[in-house]
Amino acid sequence: MADKSRLFKAHIDVSDIDHHRYEHKDFTLALLPNEDITHFLLKLIGYSLLPLNEANIYSPKAHVFNPDVGIQSLDERFEIWLDAGFPSIKRIDKASHKAKQIIILTPTYSDWLDENKQKLRLIDNLQLISIDNCFINNIEDNIERKLDWSVILESNKISISDNHGFYEANLNTLSLA
Description:
Layout: E1 7-16, E2 21-30, H1 37-49, E3 56-57, E4 69-72, E5 78-84, H2 89-96, E6 99-107, H3 111-120, E7 126-131, H4 133-141, E8 146-154, E9 157-161, E10 166-170, E11 172-174
Parallel strand pairs: 1-8, 5-6, 6-7
Antiparallel strand pairs: 1-2, 3-4, 4-5, 7-11, 8-9, 9-10
């Protein structure tokens, strides 16, 4: 049985101004025992970047190799594979054979990014997006088990409002060239 203190009821409203996408979704999501809160939040932010009616949040407990968040086509190949945080290069390389596009959503300042930039350059279908650490920390400081997010995406910026405040950051697409 799942630990109820790790379950989150989420309501997300997304307004993607650039793509004229306006959606909302209600769902329940668990913070996994081996998952830290930063990874959990990056996964939720990544989910809001994709069309909610097509995207799925995958469980690592499944017996198949899946992304944190993804859009899967009917032939079971992934159109979009999104991993949050600091995935291993081996995982990213394996994913590059299963997906048309890979997105890694990671904090801007990290040793992982510095250590792996050269290896990441070798993966052609990879898009690396970084989000400011302070943005993530501010949301983390105010997280509740009942999440009610209003997300606005516009001009490579993300804004999230919740019951505690308003948070805004750039979605920095990093050049690996």
